[in-house]
User: Fold these one by one.
Assistant:
Number 1:
Amino acid sequence: MDNGILIRTKDLVKVYPLGQQSITALADVNLTFRRGEFAGLVGPSGSGKTTLLNILGSLDAPTRGSAEVLGEKVETLSHRKAAALRNRHIGFIFQTFNLLPVYTVYENVEFPLLLLGMPPAERRRAVADALSWVGLADRTKSKPSQLSGGQCQRVAIARAVVKKPELVLADEPTANLDAENSHHILDTMETLNRDMGTTFLFATHDEKVIRHVRRKITLIDGRVAKDEALAGS
């Protein structure tokens, strides 16, 4: 892949079987993202936003076509190599949090660093920084059940950025946050994007997120209907 290109899809198709029929979630999607982009996927429910994120994050594979991420073709990766790509280079923010309920806030955020084998002192610094970014430095010993939905989402965001990944894929990251927390988190993400070159790709309906992104891709029925640079990009 050319220098500066982080993601490239070519004629990407995803079809899900549904009984005797099938649903086409993505149809001939051709997109390129450069390193350091701050981009949003928008469109109605069922338009293919989450499916595209899952493929780019190597959580799913295309039915046809190609998705190349960080120089790796997702459709050719073994389970082990796909896991290594995710662990080392990609952070995920899920709408449903996906926190481990028996772990504390600290342990949930630390978990990706354990997978990387990071030394304890480095882990402590990284977790402290990430929790400070999202305003939860005082809740390290809390369990997810002791937090509000918005706080759980902030923990999920801290977990996604703690390893300072090259790519963050965020599925409705502000869905459970109020306006003040949303702006704080988006400002934090913009800082990471600016200072570390982290690439962010959002799937969102939230106008607050859309006002922050510098590129907006509209998906309708699994196809790219519009791809536009926004003012100030």
Note: The beta strands are 5-18, 21-34, 38-42, 64-69, 72-73, 90-93, 167-171, 199-203, 215-220, 223-229.
Number 2:
Amino acid sequence: MNIRRRKILRRKSLLGKLLRLPFKLIPAKMVVPVLRGPLKVKKWIKGSHNVSIPLGIYETKQTASFLKLARNTNVFWDLGAHVGYYTLLFNAVSPKGKIYAFEPMADTVETYKKHMSLNSITNYDVFPLAVSDKDGSFNFKKTSTSVAGRLDESGETRIEVVKLSRLVAEKKIEIPDIIKMDIEGAEVNVLNDLKPLLIEKKPVLFVSTHGPQIHLDCIDILQKIGYQLKPLDTDDMKTSKEFAAFK
């Protein structure tokens, strides 16, 4: 049951506000346990992301789909790893699996590492890099949250960007069984870069798209190489922003 879809528990409802009230009293950056769900008893840094994560009600539909498809896989690429929610999910169902995480912002990378340390996870490599279809140094535009920064010529921060196919060719990262992609507009570039790998190795994909045209382009790329698509945040691929892709 996707309890996040029940309006009575949403953050603007009375019950939703009451449910979240105790967490407002907890000091920022305090370590708290996750109360329920697949990450129950995992440790989480308060304020590092949505309060619904320690409550155990964050993106429940997406979470359930990810856990189902990630179970018993061996190698996970977390592209746009942020502070590690999906990395923790992967570890919950594949504790011996290898994780390669990519996150361009230094302070966010530090929080990611703290979450791994708090939960005794060591089988990961985190790269303080963005991903695209080329290597280099590019402008990055920050937003009011640490979740939604993106590559942008008007950006005030300079970050390093890496081409994933090169890292694979140089054997710096292993071939993935499953990829989560939340990379704020670079989805088409990365899918095109990885197209030969996707055709040959057929990893499962979890994609968050950023913009209507990017969404349609991602659908087109993946369907043309034989992927089946399943919307995650709505029941319609055309209106969804997040979807799973598998062969």
Note: The mean pLDDT is 89.
Number 3:
Amino acid sequence: MEEWALTAPKYTDPATGLSWYVIDDKQPYMTGEDAEKFLEMCRETGEFPLKKFAEMVGTIQHLDDNTTAYIADNGTVIKSKDGKELEIDTSSMTYDMIMNMFRNLPKSGNYFDSSYWQKNIQKAMFSVEQ
């Protein structure tokens, strides 16, 4: 993984100062000293490392108090606390496209409406290509 980090895009969390890389435009990972600092931070706070990492790199997105998006390299699942669920195909999107989409989501809209996601996926893919 250290070798991959030589050529993979690097991202830094502004809140913690910790960095991670993305391999194959899809999969975030940490290496070296940042990974050690991250694990120590989780030990100190009692947070589950996998969940904290996913939140930090954006593969878990809290859309509102009731709705969360779980992003994987083969798609995204939108889930609500009351049991609603929607799968959306984000498999053709890169990490940057997906993060751009979530950064720019309209604050209003129905997270369980496929057309809401189709519009936002289209905007995200178009804006990254420009």
Note: The chain has two domains: 1-57, 63-130.
